[in-house]
Amino acid sequence: MAEVSLVPSIGPFGVVAGIVLTILAGLLIEQLVHYVSWRFQRAAVGVAAIFAPIITSSPELAIFTVALLQGQAEIAWGSIVAQPFMAATVIYPMVIAVSLAAWALGWRRYRLPHVHRIVAVPLLVFTIPLLPILFLHPERYGIYGRLYGVLLLVLYFVYAKFMLREEEVEKAGSSLWLRNPALQTAAAVVTMAFGAEWMVGGIKELGASLGLDKLALSVILVPVATVIPESVVGIIFIAKGRDDEGVGVIVGEKALYSTFYPGLAMVLGVYSLEPAAATALTIAIIISMFEVVAIWFGYFGLTAPIGLGGYVYYVACYTLHMACPQLGGFA
């Protein structure tokens, strides 16, 4: 069946157009973070950790919802499992690359992101909930899986309440380009959707023109393109030297995908722990544990080499599984 897209293809040029639109959407959301922080007198770090991830995760929420309505539980669950895995293996190295580039251009004071230790706490808190998921198989412990899902939902709302604490903010920090916050939010979502669609489509077109294997594209390149829209707001903050807010966005995204979305899926009974999903979760958990130690010493992203190694390992397992199913590939 041919793929259906609401966005007209522009060929390989979609890569450049997608990146430009994604960055533009990130800038719109960054302005909204400052505006919401000032308008409601809430801590900017908390708004960045809660508000920004909700907007940037809207494409995944759409995939999750459509998959549920179509009875595709595995696709719904896969869209959730992919984020913690991609965060640990691709986003962290991307953050380091952007930080080093911004430092070289004189935009930052430090080479690597510097954060307060308090950032390590939510990262650890939202890594631990992933562990029981590895053992809560629906076919054996269905009722316990649903109850655990309720617990995860409650945990996220407690976290959101804590992060959105009151704080005196004297000025918005930056004005809204579109002046109206609702209009700017809608524009950011639409711009991000177009950017992501063009980026993925452009990579596929580029791969086809270069004669690259579709499997390699789907496993190695396309996930990188889909990660950029999720992390662009955090990357913009980090490029400007606002490390706490930048890391807060990334950790907030992880919190959303470690509690709210898994909890919702488990309550609805649509989660499925196939070997591929279990392997991705295991890698994400191991790398996040190392990252907690790095953040405790004031740095973020020191696990980038480990993350890249985990990504290569997963790709190798996936390739082996697809090439020779009888040999396995996933534990």
Task: Show the helix and strand layout.
Layout: H1 14-39, H2 44-56, H3 58-69, H4 73-104, H5 120-125, H6 130-133, H7 138-163, H8 181-210, H9 214-239, H10 243-267, H11 275-296, H12 304-323
Helix pairs in contact: 1-2, 1-8, 1-9, 2-9, 2-10, 3-4, 4-9, 4-10, 4-11, 4-12, 7-10, 8-9, 9-10, 11-12
The secondary structure category is mainly alpha
Q: Label the CATH architecture.
A: Up-down Bundle
- Radius of gyration, in angstroms, nearest whole number: 19 Å
Query: How far apart, in Å, are the first and last alpha carbons?
Result: 31 Å
Number of helices: 12
**N-to-C order of helices and strands:** HHHHHHHHHHHH
Mean pLDDT: 81
Overview of this structure, please?
The protein is 73% helix and 0% strand. It has helices at residues 14-39, 44-56, 58-69, 73-104, 120-125, 130-133, 138-163, 181-210, 214-239, 243-267, 275-296, 304-323. The chain has a single domain, classed as NCX, central ion-binding region (A middle domain of Talin 1, Up-down Bundle). The relative contact order is 0.21. It is an all-alpha fold. The two termini are 31 Å apart. It has 12 helices and no strands.
List keywords for this structure.
12 helices, 73% helix, 0% strand, A middle domain of Talin 1, 331 residues
